[in-house]
Amino acid sequence: RPVAAEAAAAPAAEQRPSAVAIGDSIAFGKGVGPGESWPAIVAEQHGWRLDDLAVSGSGFVKAGWNGTTYRDQVASALKLHPQFILIAATRNDRDQDPAAVTASADRLLGELRDTFPHAHIIGITGIWGADAQPATLDRVDDIVRAAVSDVHGDFLDLGSPLQGKADLLQADGIHPNAAGQRAVAARVESRLAPLAATL
């Protein structure tokens, strides 16, 4: 490709709206290929330039495989000036102290809003597997819903896109396979549709 064309392509990529994803192993795309996580699929559909900051095992309170929490992901996001912020409630926090999850969610969402007053903050419910979602995750969803609403973000209730669909999960019964990630992304898109004018 001519040098001039390559030079033109680079700024074009930089001019795309920027987005970050804050989340867990499911948002990271554990066990699937590059570009197959639900945040990557959603970003591609909207033409966003995505930085997926998600870490396996992490939550607002629960530390991930590398000892970090959402606190660290938000710290990274604060350096990136995103126009869209995807933040996922997570099953990883379901056994944590609800008061601690609430305090962390309120603090981190507040920091994101204070730093990026015009960013579109989009929260989503946690992703469960093929069986019925437990009440402990419902509680986490409610906590994150309130925190997102308090900073005038949009919270998407995905329902249970994987319930009764073991074929959409990897062998561990926890993480969506590529088809499962597409199912989650499709559910996100269906909930985003009424907000299309703001995306």
From TrEMBL:
Superkingdom to which the source organism belongs: Bacteria
InterPro entries: Ester_Hydrolysis_Enzymes (IPR051532), SGNH_hydro (IPR013830), SGNH_hydro_sf (IPR036514)
GO terms, molecular function: phosphatidylcholine lysophospholipase activity
Domain SGNH hydrolase-type esterase: 21-183
Pfam families per UniProt: Lipase_GDSL_2
Database matches in PANTHER family: SGNH HYDROLASE-TYPE ESTERASE DOMAIN-CONTAINING PROTEIN, THIOESTERASE 1/PROTEASE 1/LYSOPHOSPHOLIPASE L1
Name this protein carries in UniProt: GDSL-like protein
